Amino acid sequence: MKKIKNNLATDVNEKITKREYLAYGSSTAVSKAATALSGALGGLVASTYMGLSDSAFATYSTIIFILGFWDIANDVIVSSFLDKTRKTYGNWGRFKPWLMLMIIPCNLVVILQTLPLNVWFPGISDVFKVTYLVLLFFLNDAFSTFYNAALTALNARRTTNNMERGYLVAIESILSSTIGACGTYIAAILPFVLPTASEAGRYFYSYSIITILAIPLTIWNIVVTKERIAEPPKAEVPKLRDVYKQIIKNKPLMMYMISEIFGHGMSVGYGLMTYAFIACFKNTPFSLTLFSGTAIQFTYSYDGENFMALLSVASLASLVTTGLSLFLAPIVRKWVDDKILYMCTRLGTGICYTAMFLSIFPFSSHTPAQIFVRIVIWYAIHGLTTGFYQTIPNLIQMAAYDYAEHKFGERNEATVSSLKNTLSRILGNCTTYATNLFLIFVGYTAYAETPELMPTESKASLLYLFAICPAIFCYLAVIPMFFYKLSGKKHQQIVDELNERRQKNLDEINRLEKEKETVEF
After folding, report:
1. Mean pLDDT, to the nearest integer, of 87-100?
2. How far is C-alpha 269 from the chain's CA centre?
């Protein structure tokens, strides 16, 4: 395999280059745009765009629920393979070849998952649609697990410097927040960009373009990235059971992972947000007056046709406060420990969603305009904690990797990443299944095309669940962090000791590479 020059650092303290920051930022930006669009419209593919009957949708949801537990075996196989394959491919490092191998099939599958079968091939049966979706789910799970585990491991080895780690996380957080709202913005302008296409077709075209653009940018990011944390060139391959024993004994990691698993339940509320807006606002016109009785009074009349425009307003309100919290996060970290910031972030988010629920209860006592204003206000306040949550967790996870390397001599990022993703997916799989059944139970699927006919009770249930689920899971996520003991000063002491070991490993690898080049010459 041909080497790529300077992809393995020669000094453990070597700074991240501007080119690396640029490559990381550009690839992350496109990836976040695809994720944002998927978050805004992705859930509608099976529930709405495929035209599945209630029974077919229930069958599909049940099969996906059962297949979700395949992650237990899939993640173990993938992570064990990556962490047991200790071979370093020259200056490619350990993980880049696998990323290059997986990037195209991984992206191709997610494009096929958005194909609007019901619109383009209206005669296709429910059996074919369910089989098609299930097969792509299986393939996507297999490819994405491999890709994400390798990418997580590579990202964890970019730098040993905690400040540089913070900068990388900050770049990702800023892009995530800025572009995260783009999913709703893109969806809002799609009717004007592609006026003749169906709603499902617009989503397919836009998602395909973004995903295809992501491929070369991600390859560039992989190529220019350097590994600055290197293992001994002849490290022994650990047995899988020993790796899991190390993970269990890594108390900071276990506390963080348990907290993140609980926090993953917030996605239930985020997923229901689109459905709640469809039910409450898609065909409900209303007028909204701002700064009433003043010289700058402004009245906005919503005609009830493009509900994604309202989602864009909510996202824009959150974007401003999220930007403020992203600006404050690295400053506050100088005086407040990451653990405290993490706990306060979770608690603050829970309070915001609890207040949202209380302010819209009971549903029948408020006009659509009043409900919308209350959602926007609390969603915006929630943005004050979002920036911290997007910055702090990744740093806590990397600190736990350092702790493992210091205590056991091994990092095993791929296994840790896969294990965390497995547990998160199992919880997410259960909550998604429950959510899909809930959509059927309240009658959403029956009224997806005619939301104006949806009963008031159904609309209220969707809105309540959207508000209260994130609150409950945020409160649960705070509890494990009371037992997290890896403070900032303790972590820095560990890193200082580790840097001496890491430099010896890098020196030995570079010495062997020079000897090999001399022999080849």
Report:
1. 72
2. 15
- pLDDT over 50 (residue 22): yes
Q: Which two tokens stand for residue 181?
A: 């709202």
Q: What domains appear along the chain, each with residue ranges and CATH number? A: 18-520 (1.20.1250.20)
Phi-psi domain of 62 (left: phi exceeds 0; alpha: psi -120 through 50; beta: other):
alpha
DSSP output for 419-446: HHHHHHHHHHHHHHHHHHHHHHHHTHHH
Confidence (pLDDT) at 481: 92
Calculate mean pLDDT across residues 332-339: 84
Residue 288 is inside which H or E element, if any? strand 286-290
**Average pLDDT in the chain:** 79
496 CB burial (10 A radius; 0-12, 13-18, 19+): exposed
Q: Rounded CA gap, 52 and 40, in Å?
A: 20
List the Cα angle 41/47/50 in 5-degree steps.
90
Residue 219 neighbours by CB under 8 Å, 6+ apart: 100, 103
Non-local (6+) Cβ contacts of 121 within 8 A are: none
Q: Could you tell me which of 184, 211, 195 has the C-alpha nearest to residue 115?
A: 211
Place of tokens 């420990």: 337
Q: Are 256 and 397 in contact (CB under 8 A)?
A: yes
Distances (CA, A) of 414 to 31, 50, 235, 285, 298: 20, 35, 16, 50, 53
If you write DSSP's letter for every residue of 90-133 in order, what string do you get? GGGTTTHHHHHHHHHHHHHHHHHHT--HHHH-TT--HHHHHHHH
Amino acid at 85: T
Question: Is residue 90 scored above 80 in pLDDT?
Answer: no
CA distances from 80 to 72, 149, 157, 406 (A): 12, 11, 18, 21
Residues constituting the chain: 521
User: Residue 428: what residue type?
Assistant: G
Least confident of 43-47, 133-137, 466-470: 43-47
Whether the CA torsion 159, 160, 164, 168 is positive or negative: it is positive
CA gap 463, 284 in Å, rounded:
15
Lowest mean pLDDT among 39-43, 371-375, 401-405, 435-439: 39-43
Structure-token pair, residue 465: 């669940």
Give the mean model confidence (pLDDT) for residues 417-430: 70
Q: Tell me, what's the pLDDT at 2?
A: 43
Please, which residues bridge with residue 8 across strands?
A: 227
- Angle 182-193/162-180 helices, nearest 10 degrees? 40
> In which region does residue 268 sit, left (phi positive, over 0), alpha (psi from -120 to 50) or beta (all else)?
alpha
Which residue intervals of 251-409 are DSSP H helices? 251-263, 266-281, 307-332, 338-359, 368-408
Percent of the chain exceeding pLDDT 70 equals: 85
